[in-house]
Amino acid sequence: MDTADRLELTTRHTQEAVTEDELEALLAEDDPSAYIGLAPTGEMHIGHLTTIRKLADLLKADIGVTVLVADLHAHLDDEKSPFDLLDARSAYYEETIRGMIEAAGEDPDDVSFVRGTEFQLNEEYTLEMYRMAAETTLARARRAGSEVVRESDSPNLGGLLYPLMQSLDVDALDADIAYGGVDQRGIYMLAREILPDHGGESPICLFAPLLSGLSGGKISASDDASKVNLNDSPDEVIAKISDAYCTMGDVEDNGVLEYLQYLVFPILDEHGEDFVVERPEEYGGNLVYEDYGSLEADFVSEELHPADLKPAVGIAISEIIDPIRKRLDDQPELLAAAYPEKYGDR
RNA sequence: CCGCCCUUAGCUCAGACUGGUAGAGCAGUCGACUGUAGAUCGACUUGUCCCCCGUUCAAAUCGGGGAGGGCGGACCA
Predict the structure, then answer these.
(1) Which one of A93, A125, A134, A200 is most buried, counting C-beta atoms within 10 A?
(2) Is the pLDDT of residue A227 over 70?
(3) Would you kindly state where each structural domain of chain A is located, as residue ranges?
C-alpha cells in the first residue's frame, strides 16, 4: 500500500489531524504506531463505536494499535469510577472494544491492550509526572482538561494530574500518533507542548468527530435519551431514534444524520450496499441512497422527510450494534460486575 | 487543632428566625399543534426534607449528638 492510500485510510471520517504533513511523513516510514486511551467510567455507547471503528482503518493502514484502558484516569477524574470497580470496568471496556473491532472486520488480537496501572506507577513515569506538576500552572492543566475532566466548584487535584499523565502515556506507550475524540484536543496539545521537555516527542494527533446527542446538544453520559447504548434492544434503538431531535432540512445538531454519515454509510459502503428509505406512496414511494452526500442533499431540500428517515435509521443502527449487543448479552457478568447498582443481582 | 457555612424532588435551590408532616425553576410523563423530533401552549407526576436522640398535642423548622461536603484561621521548631 502506498503512502497516499494509507493516509486516506487513516484520515477518512476523522475531524482533524495535527498535523497532516507530519502524518504523511510518518506514513512514509515503516512501523508507525498509534494509541487511544479510554477511561473506563460510564457505559460505552454508540459514540465510542464511531471512535473505535477507526482502529480497524489504522490496522488496515499497517499502523500498530494500542488501546490504553486508563483505569487510574477513570478514578482520578472526580472518582467517576470507584477505586474498587476499576478492574471490573476495565474488563468490560476491553471486551466491548474487542467486540467493536471485530464488528469492524479486524482481529482484536492484532491490537495490544494495556491498562494504566500496568505502567503508570513505575518510578520513571512517576518521577516525570512530578516534574511536570512542578512546571505546569493550574490554569494550564485546567484548560487542557476542560473538555474531558468533570467541572466542579471544588475541583479535585486528580483532574489536574489527569492531563499530565495522559501526556506521559503517549511517551510511555511509544506512540507516534495520539488518537481520540476531538474532546481530547486540549490534552494532546499540551502533550505536544511539554513532552519534548520530558524525554518524549510531540505526538501527531488524530481526532474523531463527536456525535451529537439525540436530544439536540452533546451526548450526555447521564441522559439515556441522548444516545444509543450498545446493549439497547432493537425496539429501544428504534424508539430513541424516533424521539430524536431532527429538524426537517436542518443539518445542524442533527444526530440522526451524523449516525448516517459516520456509521451507517461507512459500513454499508464496505458491504457494497445501498441505504433504503421506505416511504408511503402518498409521499412519493421508496428512496435509495448510495452515499451520504445524496441523502443529505435530499434532506436539506426537504425531499426526504425526517418521519420517513427515522425508522430506516433506527433499524440500521440496531443492526450495526447487534454483534456488540450479543457479546454483552452473552456475558451478563461483565456489566453486573462493572455496574452493580444497575445490573447486579439479575 | 479551632471556627463558620452547607446537606430538602433526577438537577439548581427556596422554605427554617415567627413549629401545624413541602414549594419554584429546570428535567420528566401525557395531551394539542406540526406527516418526526424540537419550539410553543395545556395538564400531570416526583420526596426516608443527611442520620440518631430529645422537647412538643405536633419537628424540614427548636435543642443535643453524629456523618458527609465546603470555606477560613491557627500551628509553622
Answers:
(1) A93
(2) yes
(3) 3-208, 224-343
